[in-house]
Amino acid sequence: MKKGSQVKILHKSVTVKVRYLLSFWKAALSCGIFLRQPGDTAKTKRERREALSALRRQRFFHFIAADMRGVFQEEKENAGRKNRGWSMEKRKTGLEEFFILKNNRKLRYGYTTGSCAAAASKAAVQMLLSGQATTQVDLMTPKGIRLFLSVEEISRKEGEVSCAVRKDGGDDPDATHGILIFASVKKIQKKEIAIDGGKGVGRVTKKGLEQPVGAAAINRVPRAMITDEVRKVCEAFGYDGGIAVTISIPEGEKIAKKTFNPKLGIMGGISVLGTSGIVVPMSEEALIASIRLEMEMKRAQGAEYLLITPGNYGAAFCRDFLKLDPERAIKCSNYVGETIDMALSMEIKGILFAAHIGKFIKVAAGIMNTHSRFADGRAEIMAANAVRAGAPIELTRKLLETVTTEEAVALLDEENLREQTMAQIVKRIHFYLQNRAYCALETEAVLFSNEHGFLAQTQGARQMIEKIKGGRQTEQGDPGQNK
Predict the structure, then answer these.
(1) Which CA distances in Å does 1 have to 5, 7, 272, 401?
(2) Alpha helix (H) ranges present in 356-459?
């Protein structure tokens, strides 16, 4: 055993023993066993000791047991943290001031697997090109929050460097909380940044997902983050060659069994995800309260018609297709029904939902909370509306076998039934939105997909877009008719 290890063990042993003795004396004094009185004789001492009841003796031992439980529990927790590679004194990550409030309790932000992969890639390339160790790396996330993340498990081989960053889900821990995300990098002749997945990163086996069949399940935004960070490091060191990046997650295959990945056709591991790079605690009350606050702010600024999107993809669609300022958009997450309810209470005149088909197709069946734990049925809803549009039985069977709406839309395209089916879907969506609003609020929707772009819109969507832009209300039809 090394001398340093012996010193650490001795120090820990002495610390525990000292704390044990302190707890012993504290308990003894609190029970009055060793207290003396002026004029005590041997007889009075004996009588006083004999007068101590069994209850007080039990209390004495209770004090020792309670205090030592705390000592040993703390020792156990500290050992656990060390075994997991966590520092006793955590370094600051840049998220210390970011939190939401729930029941007067701060719930802190975390960061995504995508941020971990990008940070690990950046650190590995820095070490590869500089030859020096990197123990902490900074990363600007798409959300605009700069992270400072510790680098662990550094390994260097000839022409290759590997390291890891530990995932921290904040106070919204999921199955990936605390795991290590590794990046291994090496130089290649081809002048490109080639990104692939290794052990524990899933492989796409079915069409309709964000990545093509056969590709590693590393989503678009994390890939862009990795590419951007690696390119910046290469430019800083004057290296103009190629870099191969392999992301691996040793615990990924085991964790994937707790997710929907196998059902979606992602096999062998988990996905590397994240559109903002940041994990915001998913407290329902806090989220709904934040949606209400943002709606109230827009209302106070004079807005009568609101642009609502379930997530980040909707904001991008508003900018690129609807030509609406994404800053106008309010994110409602999965809370479609609650958003309508709050709009009614604020006397908002109308809401335009710009939503991905994967979430909003559920609304076509009257599902007002689109989270998967409440309901799914996407394939069934798509198939039912395709039947309404005249789909043959064979196509209906295929639609029922799909795992994503992107895949389903592709099947509809093959049979030239996309437009008719989408018309049925937006008709049902409008019906259920109006049903939730008691027809006291204008509700419209525009549907899109990442792969196919614009899909359909409800009848009054164009007019509401003009109202949101500040244009005059047009007659039913083409907004271009507005003079």
Answers:
(1) 7, 10, 40, 60
(2) 357-360, 378-388, 393-400, 405-414, 418-436
Give the span between the Cα atoms of 223 and 230, in whole angstroms: 11
**Paired tokens of 218:** 């590393």
Provide mean pLDDT across the span 86-114. 75
Long-range CB contacts for residues 358-362, cutoff 8 Å, separation at least 24 = 358/404, 358/405, 358/406, 358/449, 359/310, 359/311, 359/334, 360/310, 360/336, 360/429, 360/445, 360/447, 361/405, 361/425, 361/447
3-state secondary structure of 218: strand
Contact indicator for 446, 461 with CB cutoff of 8 Å: yes
Residues 432-455 have pLDDT tens digits of 999 999 999 999 999 999 889 999
pLDDT of residue 311: 81
Task: Return left, alpha or beta for 467; rule: phi > 0 is left, psi -120 to 50 is alpha, else beta.
Answer: alpha
| Best CA proximity match to 389, nearest among 346, 345, 420 | 420
Distance (Å, rounded) from C-alpha 113 to C-alpha 119? Answer: 10
Q: Please tell me the distance from the alpha carbon of residue 124 to that of residue 343, in angstroms, as a whole number.
A: 49
3-state secondary structure of 459: coil
To 10 degrees, what angle do helices 393-400 and 405-414 make? 160
> To which residue do tokens 């995800």 refer?
273
Q: Please, what's the b/e burial string for 372-399 (b: 16 or more CB within 10 A of its CB; e: otherwise)?
A: eeeeeebbebbbbbbbebebeeebeebb
Structure pTM? 0.55
- At position 231, the amino acid (one-letter code) is R
Name the β-bridge partners of 269. Answer: 200
Rounded CA gap, 363 and 374, in Å?
12
Distance CA 185, CA 206 (A): 28
Mean pLDDT, residues 244-260 taken together: 91
**R_g over Cα of the chain:** 30
